[in-house]
Design goal:
By secondary structure, this protein is mainly alpha-helical. Helices cover 53% and strands 7% of the residues. The structure holds adenosine monophosphate and tryptophan.
Amino acid sequence: MTERVLSGIQPTHDSFHLGNYLGALRQWVELQSTHDTYYCIVDLHALTVEVDPALLRKRILASAAQLLAIGIDPKKSTLFIQSHVPAHNQLGWVFECITGFGEANRMTQFKDKSQKSGTDRTVVGLFTYPMLQAADILLYQPELVPVGEDQRQHIELTRDLAQRFNSRFGEVFTVPGAHILKSTAKIMDLQEPTSKMSKSATSLAGVIELLDTPEANVKKIKSAVTDTGRDVTFDEANKPGISNLLSICSAISGRTVASIEADYVGKGYGDFKKDVAEIVTETLRPIREAALGYLHDEQALLDILSEGAQRAEAVASKTLSIVYKSLGLLPRS
Ligand code: AMP
Ligand code: TRP
């Protein structure tokens, strides 16, 4: 039987960035031809940060448009919005009831985010976020979850919860594995190449956005922070800036880092950056244009998402009813 895949992305910003694209989304597209793929815009997860309703609505639509634009094909994949399938919250609650407080407290993403905003401004939803994520995944019984490196710990927790449930209440869940591509698992910020490229960076100067104009992205790449020295060589410890650009260039072109390095022997950073800018903008240009096109027809987007929700719901409600039964909850007669 074809293996199943599930992944999710938060609609928390106006545009996805190159880290999302190379770290996760490109794998989503590739897996469509070999796997039974479920992709979810996790709007409920986006409620853990401050909500501006008009903006959130716009960002959910922009997320769907970008996913279609990169090549997610609604005929091959089930593309849907998390809040359209209530079983996510229902199973999330079950997982909250089998997760230890200390276990949840060890999640580094929670620790980082709550430390940044302080206890008074940290919501409980941020703490229980990984259990909702486990529900997103396990409802669909996938074998694989394609994500970037920052999600490894959440997938580990998901595996633990699946195994715990199975051993206490009977074999219900497939235990999924993370699908993380080593070379692109962590794309770095162009201005701060020791931090990951992130939508929540204080400045967007080092973040390449899929919906940015080509001109803006050329400017960002040309002003990327590079390191002292002149040679275009991969050395993450001493040359994080150049190494990051080499990883980006290699991921997009499909060439090895070594063969790219060979092209720049005797040349400088300037030539290299110019070429990286070109290959990145030529890759993103058609994606941006397609996304803007999809955004022109909101009804067509809503129709695709509605059909996706229907397909997702059929799978999710089946899993949920097995879970409830295994727990001893009585079915409504
Ligand atoms: P998020 O925007 O946090 O919902 O992340 C969406 C997906 O992109 C997840 O699978 C992340 O692991 C991945 N991702 C986010 N930032 C990066 C990055 N800088 N490099 C590689 N993957 C990333
Ligand atoms: N926590 C993930 C992130 O920040 C988003 C996410 C939510 C997710 N549910 C998921 C990713 C299920 C994979 C599978 O990127």
